[in-house]
Amino acid sequence: MSTSAATELFLAKPHLQQLLNALSARGYCIIGPTIDQSAIVYAEIRTVDELPQGWTDQQEPATYRLVRREDNAWFGYAVGPHSWKRYLFPPFATVAVADRTAAGWQMSTPHEPVPKYAFLGVRACELAAIKIQDKVFLEGAYVDPIYRARREQAFVIAVNCTSAGANCFCTSMNTGPRCTTGFDLALTELPDAFLVEVGSDSGGEVLAELQTRVADVEEQAAAERARQQAVSQITKRLDTTDIRNLLLTNLEHPRWAEVATRCLSCTNCTMVCPTCFCASVNEVSDLQGDHVERQRQWDSCFNLDFSYMNGGHIRNDIRSRYRQWMTHKLASWIDQFGSSGCVGCGRCITWCPVGIDLTEEVAAIRGETP
Amino acid sequence: MNSSPVTAPARPPVPENPWLSHTVRIEQIVPEIAEVATYELAFVDSTIAATYQFQPGQFNMLYLPGVGEVAISISADPRSRERWAHTIRVAGSVTQSLARLQPGATLGLRGPYGNPWPVAACEGRDVILVAGGIGLAPLRPVIYELLANRNRYRKVTVLVGARTPEGLLYPGQYADWKAAGIDLQTTVDRASPGWLGNVGVVPQLLDRMALPAPQETVLLVCGPEVMMHFTVKSAQRRGVPVENIWLSSERNMQCAVRLCGHCQLGPTFVCKDGPVYRFDQIAPFLKVEGL
Amino acid sequence: MSTRPTLAVFKFASCDGCQLSLLDAEDELLAVAGAVDIAFFPEASSRMLPGPYDIALVEGSITTSHDAERIQEVRKQSRFLMTIGACATAGGIQALRNWGDTAEFLQAVYARPEYISTLATSTAIADHVTVDFELRGCPINHHQLVEVLSSLIAGRRPRTPTHSVCLDCKRRGTVCVTVAQGIPCLGPVTQAGCGAICPAYDRGCYGCYGPVKQCNSESLGDHFIATGSTPGELVPLFRNFNGYAPEFRAESDRLARRAEGV
Hints:
Strand order of the largest sheet of chain A: 3-2-8-9-10-11-1-12
Mean pLDDT of chain B: 93
Strand content of chain B: 25-35%
Strand order of the largest sheet of chain B: 10-9-8-7-11-12-15
Order of helices and strands of chain A: EHEEEEHEEEHHEHEEHEHHHHEEEEHHH
Helix content of chain B: 10-25%
Number of strands of chain B: 15
Oligomer: heterotrimer
Order of helices and strands of chain B: EEHEEEHEHEHEHEEHEHEEEEH
CATH superfamily of the largest domain in chain B: Nucleotide-binding domain of ferredoxin-NADP reductase (FNR) module
Shape of chain A: globular
CATH class of the largest domain in chain B: Alpha Beta
Radius of gyration of chain A: 22 Å
Number of helices of chain B: 8
Largest sheet of chain B: 7 strands, mixed
Distance between the termini of chain B: 23 Å
Radius of gyration of chain B: 18 Å
Structural class of chain B: alpha/beta
Distance between the termini of chain A: 34 Å
Mean pLDDT of chain A: 96
Largest sheet of chain A: 8 strands, mixed
Structural class of chain A: alpha+beta
Number of helices of chain A: 13
CATH architecture of the largest domain in chain B: 3-Layer(aba) Sandwich
Number of strands of chain A: 16
Low-confidence stretches of chain A: none
Low-confidence stretches of chain B: 1-10
Number of domains of chain B: 2
CATH topology of the largest domain in chain B: Rossmann fold
Largest interface: A-B, 54 and 46 residues
């Protein structure tokens, strides 16, 4: 891991509010970490007071607890139940409308205002996740217009991790914890300040409005130590050696049946995953049936009806559905999009109600564990 | 990858909103076999009709507002310019509702989508089309294509199977196809009174066929999975190379534009990498139950 | 002569809440009423036409021998029979009696128990006659009801979502109460339909829409035990409005055996 050659600027901690103000003045709706429902979620914030100052998250498989930190860090947590995909690939979106006219059905594209988001607190694994969803939604033969409209005008403020959770394994997936690309601004938190890196022209323009100065060598060293602390705290590993072939040549491995005895097929892992992109479209009609909206909703390969066809289900047991999810995420994603679909954020492990850990499942298929 | 097909049209521009359908009108409904009818659809907007082209094996998404969408293979002549035939079996809610519509009704259509049959790879070779039941519908555009340039292909055989004689699709066209230089053979699982033809499953027709040049034979197969399985087995036994065998697969199709995740088959998306696959590219995944 | 399909609504042992959901759907109901001929719906209309009926909605469970006979007659008179609600679909909350002693309950509740004629069990309609479609919920969701009726009127096979409550929690942004707060919740094994209300108010799911298809209740039960619940505490979690649905019944019986150390 090389330290960035780019200049890091010193922003006194209270002045982060200036950044929020500058973004608000530019018309951004700022989405950042805040405490709600006993967790650090991503929601609209207006002031730095709404950040989870002095809080962290303790994570284990199937367990997430908010706990007080000894210090007053503003970004002293790993990742929570939400991911930015909620804002770029919204759980509900109208993709088309149909109206019955004298000349028959007329289909059109709904013109809804596109929210202009600034994301504050994007982790390195989440930058990687956004990059992966860019591939899915923007780089195929067909582009998803809803994702594109939101993505194109999003302003991304990354925050380097200075601590890690027990389910983090970004180092195995080569996605973090250092933010290297894909942001407008990147922050590293120190006790009284943030060191800021500029990742884009628009990031530089916003930063120019804030009270900053060039960070001195000591401050830069402190920031590097803080970032290294996150690296040293990561203990979970996923061995990705030849993982594509490992999984796709073990489609009848007994482990799939074993994990199916634990898996609830409840969809939680796919919903919290920052890269899962499956969706279905529902018809929503008015009472007369003359105006119909086609509503896209998040869906999941863990749903039985996901593979419904001609009166039957292709994936008719939990075994085949868990296998579909994991082989897609870690193996066939590589065929489809040129990279793993996993960024090592650990959400699927934390938010699985029964604590299934995909790194353990891979290890079992690798034959490393019984 | 397959080489570009004979008809190779310039692909229409990628739509800004891939979910948006065009309005089409039902021009004619032709009852085929039980529960199956062919719908001749015409674009209401003539500028779309002027640019719409498809390749044999591709499909459209047909949309009934308030009910939903369904993937339907195009069974029209690829040279169609005014109306496009879709042979549809009543199966789910959309096709149930379609079956209640009359000519003049409108619906939505977007497409064409998917990987087509490798018509170009058939040139200069013996071609065998094997269809089971309604599986003849996605193969019919190939027949039109082969007949339009009959001299480009060597022996063309069409093997059609159905459960019963009443289940044979497009029987009214068989005589024309034969007259135009196609060896067409039929078989049924169960004969009904008056049936004097073959009784047995389609792969048996292939077993009995002379294959003078298996290396130079191309096989296009569409039908129930078990029928495709035995057909491929038979062809391989007879020395047809795997890279000459193509089949059409099916999965739950929802967006048709590789954005919704539903139609995955192994590492592929049926809407994009299929529905037509070269057998060896999909074989390892066809064997796995529930993939 | 009307060519609209005839609709009948029948009540068995239930609280009437599902019929009320139907009546609650006033606006939609008017549209539905225009498309069907309501031939028999005592709760809404004094008009009671004889059968046969095209569509019968059946609310409630079978708890008396009289009702056990009556449901046979309803079935004979109905072309498409759809159960509405947890009572009709799984026996309802009154199916708790199936684990108790009915005679004892009668003694405790009624001054003159000899006047009461009841079966020892509360059972689902499908245990007695063929059911064409089950609409889940305690109570049912009237949007789903209207959707199903619209499908039937249009001649389509009705379908309702079969995914778990978890999916709806995640779509609406609710943080998992089990993972973040340690609250036992039936969401992962329960079919959606309510819109995932309870977890949004920091409560675990009660399982009002019954077991999701191919649910893995045993794994969830084991996990709750591993994280501090006792089997005895978990029995009432599964024995609720849908407690007698086969999957929940099997799990509560298993947990009860564990609680007794069997």
